[in-house]
Amino acid sequence: MKTELELKYGCNPNQKPAKIYIENTNLPIEVLNGRPGYINFLDALNGWQLVRELKEALGLPAAASFKHVSPAGAAIGKLLSDVLRKIYFVDPTLELSPLACAYARARGADRMSSFGDWIALSDCCDYATAKLIQHEVSDGVIAPDYTAEAFEILKSKRKGAYNIVKIDSSYVPDPIERKQVFGITFEQGRNEYKISKSQLDNVVTEIKEIPDSAKQDLVLSLITLKYTQSNSVCFAYDGQTIGVGAGQQSRIHCTRLAGGKADNWFLRQHPKVLALPFRNDIPRPNRDNAIDVYISDFADDVIGDDVWYETFTTQPEPLTTVEKRFFLDAQTGVSLGSDAFFPFGDNIERAYRSGVKYIAEPGGSIRDDNVISMCNKFGIAMAFTGMRLFHH
Description:
- The chain is an alpha/beta fold.
- It has helices at 38-58, 82-87, 98-108, 111-114, 127-134, 148-155, 212-226, 251-267, 271-274, 284-294, 300-303, 321-329, 346-352, 368-378; strands at residues 2-7, 18-23, 29-33, 62-67, 70-76, 117-121, 138-143, 163-167, 176-181, 184-189, 232-237, 240-246, 334-338, 356-361, 381-384.
């Protein structure tokens, strides 16, 4: 017996026919609305595994924002501060559920990358979560269920064509997984490695103490990496990712990419950014882009004498390099996970500049001593997990 679902096309419009199917049982998913595509389902199924494991490991509802088979953001349902509500465009009058908090954080981790995302939710999608999703540009959502109110809100998106997928939360896949490349079938055991705080016991640096809040963030970062295209590095803070560097051939480029995103996440909270005088008719994606440019080295592209009025009611003052560095130097307590060992200490030096105080990585490099020494130099606690988390 085989159950299948025909798709419009594969990764690209010329790749036809396309479908998903399963042998000897029923598909554990149900399309409640819309017509998800090939890449949508790759994001949906990877995202579902991520949020399911986050909730199991940390005991709170979880959400993920996926783009091109890697998470742009992932988070658990911790309360939002007033500042986070503002930078995540959350209505100050909306009462947030833990799941809604998780989604706001996941979407807010890297709003530029999350544009047009696929959403994964660990719990039944409720009214508050649906209201947040309603106002974001997104391709679809996967969850174990939806309240009637939430479903009607989501179904109204994209002129009634928004993709809504329900997954059977009790589904357990076959322990062997297969895929084809160039007509050749690859087979391997599924990565069933369970990530928990116990993987953080082998602290190899002079500083041994890792507080429970940092252990929570390290577990979050490692589970996120388990479903991120390798090589990958993940910065986490206060129950959410703040920078994911995915799919880079060099680990230092992963660290630089993720560190740059973490810096941007912090800088969005700078008083000058919070006070930017946006015109009322500027939609969210344009605001996100303007903020991204404003905190970059090319601020004149949005606040220059000849362009500022296109976005703002008054011309903003620049955020200087000195101001940015001063603000970033005050940030600390960031956790960093890596899906494989750091081969050189330059990764640690770059991580330190983005406030990293806690690191989890497998260990096993011939240069582990150099990496440990660099952590000791910067007062960073590092745990060796002993487990690589490559994902392709």
